[in-house]
């Protein structure tokens, strides 16, 4: 009981440690913060206020939406109140019976606020209205109507930009939870599965990766985040992928690969992070976006392969079974890339064409052996 509890605590702490050391989370968020930025540099975010608002969280955008509308209504209400005050329209000024007001129905600050709201939102209940006896009121209602139309367009554009953000389309692109290392087409490959959950295509999709690790140079300098290019490909190539169904990405582990020196025993002891990127353009919205995920050594399984997920139904349609999307099965794999390329390639082949998949010791009939 105590041993089981302690092992769970260690596993939980290990998972928290791994999540803290990630530069990119599994969902694609970057784990980085900036410090000691000069105060004057913050004005750059104000100057580029549109990008700042679009990238802000929804709660801040809605706070800005409600606050700015309420503030503008109140500021224009003060102008209407000041205009009614100068014209003697307020109730405490005791206007005469034949007094010609500047705005009908405005006799205090509350009614001035209601008239400002009705003017800017074009509600027009019919109780309050500007009169032709006050040229300043006609000018002010024109200014507020133009300002209200402009600000409504601005806020509608902000909401639409946040709703149609390419990040939302990226939510329907998913990667497998684990990566696997197994033989593929005569090569030792690191494989990752990716799927498009929508039927709409991703145009011009490109896949590539970066291996992030700490490296010490010959000059004694320590590079905290050293980036190494990782090339991925599928059976159809690596450019302009036909991304209509889930496919598996393959990185060939050869002498030029940073995984070449790793083995099945030392892989999980390494300290690196494999970040995978997918760039593409959504067919329905023509918006370009990037989807990211990352894998740490504990999320790479040596000697495993993914289960097949594509089949053909009875009505001649292709069916994708996502229940097997991240499921793997063990396969026979060499313990290292060196063994795979140097030892397995020199294994004797049956000269008589016997299929010996079970690695069983069998007797070969000498009459079937071809004499050279």
Total domain count:
2
Supply Rg: 34 Å
Mean pLDDT, nearest integer?
A: 80
- Say which CATH homologous superfamily of the largest domain is assigned: G protein-activated inward rectifier potassium channel 1
Principal-axis shape equals elongated
Number of helices: 8
Sequence of secondary-structure elements: HHHHEHEHHEEEEEEEEEEEEEH
CATH topology of the largest domain: Immunoglobulin-like
Estimate what percentage of residues fall within beta strands. Answer: 15-25%
Count every beta strand, where a strand is a DSSP E run of 2 or more residues: 15
List segments where confidence is low: pLDDT < 50 over at least 5 consecutive residues: 345-372
* C-alpha end-to-end distance: 68 Å
Helix content: 25-40%
Name of the CATH architecture of the largest domain:
Sandwich
In this structure, how is the largest beta sheet organized?
5 strands, mixed
CATH C-level of the largest domain: Mainly Beta
How does the helix and strand content classify structurally? alpha+beta
Family: Belongs to the inward rectifier-type potassium channel (TC 1.A.2.1) family.
Transmembrane segments: 60-83, 138-161
Catalytic activity: K(+)(in) = K(+)(out)
Keywords: Ion channel, Ion transport, Membrane, Potassium, Potassium transport, Transmembrane, Transmembrane helix, Transport, Voltage-gated channel
